[in-house]
Design goal:
alpha/beta, membrane
Length: 474
């Protein structure tokens, strides 16, 4: 996939070569990957791993065309961004951040800073893997979506409506009443079961009042309601047969137990910190939905984007104190507390009838465990995995097919490199093992065409002398 160029022709949207770039990092894998991209594209890059203030100031005294602050900690990234702007005001600056509030504040405070949201960078790839594997990415626009087909062609970019994406590619069987009841929590099940039991006792009392005591239906209903609320029984019951009196006594004792159970369940639903509801927007969907395991920044943004597209979604988080849990509740996203690799939980979430399952937690091993458990419960389910550049996911993928893998490190690193070199891709993605970029003019470019060629030597330094200036790092 991508736009090919003729021999001697400049690659499309290619950055200017010969630039001097500084990467300030506390994530070695992400910084190394970004530095390799910058070096391949014909510029000099110097990496500073967790530098102190003096080291950073000394390095920024030399020629610098752009600075990238690469960190998974928003506070660390914010500190380095402000220090960099203080030392070299006006220099091209790219900062990776997760939190949108912090990103907006940095963009407002530092006008020459381009904030690269790690979450927004990978969500288009996750969306495409969850909704339609024909597309490499699904990039939201003002009124719809832009999709890039995995197979390149004369028109790889397709405009899609949100309604078309919300419709499942294949019909999913609808769950019945049993499936709905199984999806409820313990207190909700107690509430529903006790309420159904009370209704059953009421119906039997009305039926027996009409058939045995020969009461009019409204009298039978009134007397049955009095017995149900423990206000009294029908006066005609005193002359009823013995078996009716025995049945009436047992039914009143049953009502006493069911009423206590119903009251306890109702109080828990009204006063408890409930993440799901029995009915409504926060109820657990039972078919055609997407299960998002891991409610961090990535999981929350993916769930919110799916909800905006009209796709039913349920999130799973094992930590009840996670920072994004209250945010999901405010967005009416149902959240189930538990371990995503639990087979009983997966059955409760109707994984067999789901549209896809996305394991997007920060722990790669936990994501693999979720995928393996899902394969055992639903062998043909579409599974999407978040991988942060570790070799464990790649090794597991080579052993057996566990799902579509979203390589966060590779995507974010290419986005950082392209942005700090002066290009502004709308989205970066991986298609057919090629790293590609979608630009605002809807051109799709294979970033491999930007490579400067094998005749250039590696120009990346790590704490040593800058090959372009000869200045030592320390």
């Amino acid at each position: 996939m991508g736009t090919r160029t003729a021999i001697g022709e400049a690659p499309l949207h290619s950055p200017r070569t010969g630039q001097h770039i500084v990467i300030v990092e506390d994530d070695e894998a992400l910084g190394r990957e970004a530095a390799e991209c910058i070096s391949r594209w014909g510029s000099t890059v110097h990496r500073l791993n967790r530098p102190d203030d003096d080291t950073l100031k000394r390095r920024l005294q030399h020629d610098v065309d752009g600075i990238a602050v690469v960190s998974r900690d928003d506070i660390v990234a914010l500190r380095y961004a402000l220090l960099t702007e203080h030392v070299r005001p006006g220099v091209r600056l790219v900062v990776t951040l997760f939190d949108r509030t912090v990103a907006d504040e940095v963009s407002r405070t530092v006008p020459n800073c381009s904030v690269l949201s790690i979450t927004d960078t990978i969500v288009p790839t996750l969306l495409a893997d969850c909704l339609n594997p024909r597309y490499a990415i699904l990039q939201p626009t003002g009124s719809g979506m832009v999709g890039v087909l995995r197979q390149g062609g004369p028109a790889p970019v397709v405009h899609l409506s949100r309604r078309a994406l919300a419709a499942a590619s294949r019909p999913r069987p609808r769950g019945g009443l049993t499936t709905w009841f199984r999806s409820l929590g313990t207190s909700a099940k107690a509430l529903v079961a006790s309420f159904a039991g009370l209704l059953l006792v009421l119906a039997l009392d009305v039926l027996l009042g009409i058939c045995v005591l020969h009461e009019r239906w409204y009298d039978a209903l009134w007397n049955a309601a009095r017995a149900l609320t423990t206000l009294g029984s029908s006066p005609a019951a005193e002359w009823g047969p013995a078996w009716y009196k025995v049945f009436s006594a047992l039914s009143m004792l049953t009502v006493l137990a069911l009423a206590a159970l119903f009251t306890a369940g109702l109080v828990d639903q009204l006063t408890g910190r409930r993440m799901t509801s029995i009915l409504g927007a926060r109820s657990i969907p039972r078919h055609g939905h997407v299960i998002v395991v891991g409610l961090g920044q990535v999981g929350l943004r993916l769930s919110a984007r799916l909800r905006d597209l009209g796709v039913k979604v349920v999130a799973v988080e094992r930590n009840p104190q996670a920072a994004c849990v209250p945010l999901a509740r405010s967005l009416a996203i149902p959240v189930v507390l538990g371990r995503g690799g639990d087979r009983f939980l997966l059955n409760r979430l109707c994984v067999q009838r789901a549209r896809a399952l996305a394991a997007v937690g920060s722990d790669g091993l936990e994501n693999i465990a979720v995928a393996v458990a899902t394969r055992a419960v639903a062998p043909h389910q579409r599974i999407v995995l978040r991988a942060d550049g570790d070799g464990v996911t790649a090794d597991s993928q080579s052993l057996f097919r566990i799902g579509a893998v979203c390589d966060v490190t590779r995507i974010v690193a290419a986005s950082v490199a392209a942005s700090v070199l002066g290009t502004r891709p709308l989205s970066v993605f991986i298609a057919e093992r090629h790293t590609c970029a979608l630009f605002p003019d809807e051109q799709v470019v294979d970033l491999g065409t930007w490579d400067a060629g094998p005749y250039r030597q590696s120009r990346t330094t790590e704490g040593g002398a800058d090959p372009a200036t000869g200045v030592p790092a320390h």
